[in-house]
Amino acid sequence: MEKIRNFCIIAHIDHGKSTIADRMMELTGTVSKREMKSQLLDSMELEQEKGITIKLAPVTMQWKGYTLNLIDTPGHVDFSYEVSRSLQAVETAVLVVDATQGIQAQTLANVYLALEQDLTIIPVINKIDLPAADVEKVSAQIMNLLGCSRDDIIEASGKTGFGIGEILDTVISEGPAPSFLGLRSRPLSPQGSSRSSSPCQAPEALRKEVLGSSETKALIFDSYFDDYRGVVLYVRIFEGEINKNDEILMMATDVEGLALEVGVLTPKMTPRESLKAGEIGYIVTNLKTTREAKVGDTVTLVKEPAKEALPGYKNVLPFVYAGFFPVSNDQYKELKEAVEKLSLSDSALRFEPENSPVLGFGLRIGFLGLLHMDIIRERLEREFGLNLIVTNPSTNYEVVLNNGEVREIKSASDLPDASEIREIREPWVKGEIILPKSMIGSVLNLINEKRGHQTNVSYIEDRAVIDFEAPMANLLTDFYDQLKSATSGFASFNYELNGYRAEDLVRVDFLVGGHKMDALSVMAHRSEADAIGREVTKKLKEVIPRQNYEVALQAAIGARIIARETIGAYRKDVTVKIHTGDRDRKAKLLEKQKRGKARMKRFGKIDIPSEAFTVMLKRD
Question: Residue 179: which of 218, 209, 202, 204 has the closest Cα?
Fold first, then answer.
């Protein structure tokens, strides 16, 4: 136990976590030079292409007689749930900060998560070899944030490998050995940490070894479905041990299974006879779905089950919803099967069937954020060869009916009749923006435009931290892009859900040629409804092709039309064959054409292209 160290790397997106993990594997000889490639732990094709980490990835390394278990974590706010799961399984967090960027929003969020878990934090400044690196300024920011001394901060370069050995040595010397979970679950002191000295020092109490226990407890911090082997669990053993071919029990779901194989990841699967207390590894089971072994569940043995489960995780709930429809209805079954397969390895994904009169059968899928939605869409199109129409993303709302019943709706088209509604509540978020001091004014204006309000402004050296609250729906489409534009790319943004509030909300419907399109309906605040109606009808005019007759595009709240655009008809010159100047003959032909167009307008079907359903994503 004393020779084991469990740690994870946390940082803002693109601060070099995966590159440092690569250098660690190289230095410890875990991966040979021949097998080495950049971002080795980012195994997904999309991760390699976008240069971001989407799924957490564990790896076991050997260094100076110690076993080091590393978990590489994502940096994007959509995947902060993955970070919180990793922190539960380790005792030490290596906090990486980019020497050119300094402390950013997700850096702060991850530090708070690590302090909640009472982990030992080892600060590292990465990318010191870049010409734009400002080590002293970033060091001052870290000292201000953590309250540690300049000597505690390690300077490193993931590109050249400088300082990587020092990070590993510090993990061994400062990081506590695996300990009984109860010691790490004690309440924090008012300063936010129960450490006896500075936040960079490990508390002595955590160095106690796990006492011999007949019970076996292991925490599932990730799981995925392998087409050939079944459900594979990534676990941290807290007490006892799990041997190959042991009968195991998932305590939350009360499902029994068999540990067909146990082992560690180096980073490929390396089988072993058993996993002992303090170790991080994998268990290949005979289970058929990850729903039987949920993330955060406790694994114990059937022959000697544990009396109490480990604390586990809170259940993550999606708050961005979008409709996914196949271009051809023949592909609906394939879409459903594809989403079911993805949900086996992505516990945050929620979906239910949806039917639209225009788009046919599809699925309403819930996501953790827009990047999560974008990645799932790309995976469905690439891995399963599907052609999809994705409707405007929206969030969920709570509707209080006159009889007191509270109903949750995920789409504007599900809204009950206005006469039945007492109030509508929308989700609000608590956000945090870190930016240079000189740009505060433009960002505060942007927050006000989104119906948000600033709650606090604080400063870390030359940077400002703006805390604000705003409605989730207004941040869904283009808030991040507008924030980057207003701050020349210097601002970073982090948010979390902050409950529901009753607001004056209405449903804005869109009519094409007099027919209401449910898939285009949106929820909006009454004060913003007119502007959204005008904006969307203009966009629809650009994407819906002209017909042989006039087509009216209208936005409406109930029966009241609030905006209109008209797509002009194609006009064939029917008088071209008349070579005389006879006025009556021309009028007769034009009148005949007019009657024909009126008949076409009654019976004609307007072909609506798929771009029309994502028009809200392309706001100016």
Answer: 209
